[in-house]
Fold:
Amino acid sequence: MYEALATQGREKVHTSLAGIDSSRLKKLRNTHLRECFSLIDEMRHKLEFVARIKGISFIDDAASRTTMSTWYALETVDSKVVWIANGAVANSARAADFRRLRQLVENKVCMIVCLGDSTLYQSVFGDLVKEIYSVQSMRDAVTKAFYSEREDIKILFSPAVENGISYEEQGESFKREVNEL
Structure:
């Protein structure tokens, strides 16, 4: 049991442990507290395992819409990563924010696939990751990542920036495309 939790990463372990404690707290009389703790079990699109196909694991982290939440996702994954992210135009403020990810990207990311404009990723990570691609659809992103001919990787969808589409919709789209491979 502990090994299964450990392979899911720290986020899942913390969530699972919180879920164990929350079972007792759900009996509280305060309805607001009870409602908050009942939501713990419903965390979707946050480091959620989707499938394992031909030895490649797919992880849905669509809820990560900031560089810090993507940092946490990258830090949590225990292998090399093909990172699928939302595209973004480079500007000085956003580039400075993304530079926080450089060490993790250097150590873990072997390819970046951007849904849309890849100029931000090219400018910040171009010297660290040789393969940075721009695609126009989730289908293209999942296909490009899956057929990258890399072994022992995990494909992580962690957007890092908002793009006007809800994280639920993007996460469901990612899962659908993975399941159609």
User: Anything to note?
Assistant: The beta strands are 48-53, 56-60, 80-86, 109-115, 132-135, 153-157. DSSP finds nine helices and six strands in the chain.
